[in-house]
Task: inverse folding
C-alpha cells in the first residue's frame, strides 16, 4: 500500500512494528492499542502523553468506524504526523512522549508529550519578603512560559539541545539578541555540544560539565529557581539555561558580586537595599576570618588582646587541653555536623536539632573544659554570618575555604592568616568558566555592585555603556 505523505521520499524499514515491540519488550507501562477494522496500531506511554490531546487527535479520528482508507491517508498527510523511516527513530519518539501510528507498513509519529507536572508554587529556597512568589517547576515548557510572560521581546532567542545518550534530556539556552555577547553564545553552544555522558538529570550537574575549573571551590554559574531573577539576568546580557526535569536555572557568565545580591534588593528602597548588601560583605569577612583571627591571636600574638579581655581569656582557656588550632577545628567541625543534620532532617525536626543541639553541645563543651567561652562565641558568629550570604553554593565554598585559613593561621600566625586571605583573592581573580582572565571579579556596573543605586541611575548607566561580560 503506497500513498503520498509527509517525508514520503524516505525509505521505510520493513517490520517496523515488530522491531519496535522487540526494542520495548518487558515495558509493562507501554500501551499497544489496535484498530483491526482499519489495520492501525498505536504504541505509546500513556503517562507521557496528554490524555485529552491523544483522544481528540488520535484515538477518535483513527478509531472511527466510518473511516475509510482515503480518509486515513488524508489524515496522515497533515503536518503534525511525521513519517519515521527506522525502528530506532520510532523507539526514540515513543520514549520522548510521542505516539507511534502504524498503517500500511509505515510508521508515523505524533507529538502529544504532556506528562503530569507539579503546579507553580512559591520557592522554599529563595524566599522574598516582597515581590513575585512563583518559582520554576520541573517542566521545561512551564518554565519557558514563566520567562516569556515577563519578557515579551522578539529578541529573546531559545536554542534547544539534547543531553545524555541515555536520558535524552532537553535543554533550552536563552539569550537576548543584541544584549548577550555573541562570543559567549557560541562558546556555550560548543560546551553543550561537547558534553558526552549517559545522563544529565539536573542543572547543578550540568554546570559541572560546563565548568573547566574542576579544582575551584567557588561556583562559576549562578543558579536560581525564580523566573524574575532569570529575566533580570537576560536583560543584563547573560545567558540562561533551563533543563527539562530540573527546577533550577543557571545564568552565565557569573561574577563574584552576583552571589551577594538578593531578589529583595530590587523590591525595596535603594538605601535599605544598599545597607543590607554592605552587611553581606561584612558577613563575608566575618565568616572567612573571625575564627582564624582568634586562633592566630591566642596562639602567637597575645599583645594584640586588650588587658581586660586577656585575663578573661586566660581564665577561660585554663582547663582546655587542646591547642587553639585543634580547639577551633573541633568546634567548626561540630557546627558543620549540626548544619548538615538540620538540612537533611524534616523541617521541624531539623530546626529543633540545630537550635537545641548547638546550645546543649556548646554549654556542655565549656563546662567539660573542652573549649573556651570566647571560641564558642567566635564560631557562633562565624556560622551566623555565613547564613547572611544569599547563595548557598557560595556560602558553602566560603565555609570550606575558611578551614584552610584557620589551619594556616594556627601554623604561621598572622603571616599565615594573610597568606590565606591572599590565596582567597587569587582564587577569585582567576579565569571564569568562559575563559576570561579576571572576569569573575569584573566590576560590571558600579552602581549595582557593592551598593544598589536608584533604579533610574542603573538604567541610565546601562543605556550609555554595556557592562563587560568578559
Result:
Amino acid at each position: 500500500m503506497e500513498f503520498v505523505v509527509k517525508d514520503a521520499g524516505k525509505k521505510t524499514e520493513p517490520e517496523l512494528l515488530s522491531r519496535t515491540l522487540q526494542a520495548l519488550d518487558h515495558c509493562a507501562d507501554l500501551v499497544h492499542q489496535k484498530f483491526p477494522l482499519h489495520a492501525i496500531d498505536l504504541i505509546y506511554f500513556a503517562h507521557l502523553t496528554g490524555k485529552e490531546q491523544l483522544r481528540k487527535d488520535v484515538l477518535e479520528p483513527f478509531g472511527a468506524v466510518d473511516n475509510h482508507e482515503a480518509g486515513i491517508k488524508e489524515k496522515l498527510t497533515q503536518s503534525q504526523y511525521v513519517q519515521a523511516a527506522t525502528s530506532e527513530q520510532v523507539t526514540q519518539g515513543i520514549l520522548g512522549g510521542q505516539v507511534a501510528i502504524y498503517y500500511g507498513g509505515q510508521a508515523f509519529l505524533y507529538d502529544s508529550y504532556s506528562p503530569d507536572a507539579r503546579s507553580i508554587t512559591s520557592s522554599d529556597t529563595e524566599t522574598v519578603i516582597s515581590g513575585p512568589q512563583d518559582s520554576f517547576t520541573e517542566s521545561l515548557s512551564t518554565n519557558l512560559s514563566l520567562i516569556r510572560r515577563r519578557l515579551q521581546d522578539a529578541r529573546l532567542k531559545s536554542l534547544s539541545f539534547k543531553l545524555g545518550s541515555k536520558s535524552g534530556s532537553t535543554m533550552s539556552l536563552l539569550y537576548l539578541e543584541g544584549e548577550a555577547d555573541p562570543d559567549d553564545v557560541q562558546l556555550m553552544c560548543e560546551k553543550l555540544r561537547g558534553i558526552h555522558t549517559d545522563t544529565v538529570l539536573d542543572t547543578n550537574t550540568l554546570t559541572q560539565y560546563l565548568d573547566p575549573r574542576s579544582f575551584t571551590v567557588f561556583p562559576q554559574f549562578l543558579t536560581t529557581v525564580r523566573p524574575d531573577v532569570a529575566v533580570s539576568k537576560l536583560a543584563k546580557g547573560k545567558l540562561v539555561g533551563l533543563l527539562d526535569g530540573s527546577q533550577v536555572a543557571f545564568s552565565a557568565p557569573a561574577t563574584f558580586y552576583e552571589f551577594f545580591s538578593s531578589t529583595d534588593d530590587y523590591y525595596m528602597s535603594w538605601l535599605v537595599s544598599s545597607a543590607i548588601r554592605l552587611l553581606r560583605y561584612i558577613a563575608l569577612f566575618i565568616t572567612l576570618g573571625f575564627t582564624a583571627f582568634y586562633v592566630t591571636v591566642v596562639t602567637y600574638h597575645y599583645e594584640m588582646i586588650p588587658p581586660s579581655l586577656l585575663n578573661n581569656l586566660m581564665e577561660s582557656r585554663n582547663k582546655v587541653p587542646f591547642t587553639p588550632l585543634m580547639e577551633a577545628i573541633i568546634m567548626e567541625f561540630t557546627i558543620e555536623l549540626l548544619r548538615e543534620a538540620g538540612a537533611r532532617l524534616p523541617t521541624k525536626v531539623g530546626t529543633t536539632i540545630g537550635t537545641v543541639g548547638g546550645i546543649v553541645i556548646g554549654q556542655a563543651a565549656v563546662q567539660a573544659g573542652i573549649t573556651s567561652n570566647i571560641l564558642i562565641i567566635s564560631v557562633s558568629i562565624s556560622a551566623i554570618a555565613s547564613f547572611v550570604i544569599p547563595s548557598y553554593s557560595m556560602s558553602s565554598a566560603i565555609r570550606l575555604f575558611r578551614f584552610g585559613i584557620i589551619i594556616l593561621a594556627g601554623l604561621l600566625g598572622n603571616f599565615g592568616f594573610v597568606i590565606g586571605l591572599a590565596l582567597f583573592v587569587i582564587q577569585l581573580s582567576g579565569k571564569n568558566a568562559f575563559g576570561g582572565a579576571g572576569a569573575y571579579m569584573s566590576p560590571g556596573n558600579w552602581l549595582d555592585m557593592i551598593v544598589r543605586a536608584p533604579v533610574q541611575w542603573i538604567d541610565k548607566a546601562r543605556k550609555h555603556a554595556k557592562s563587560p561580560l568578559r
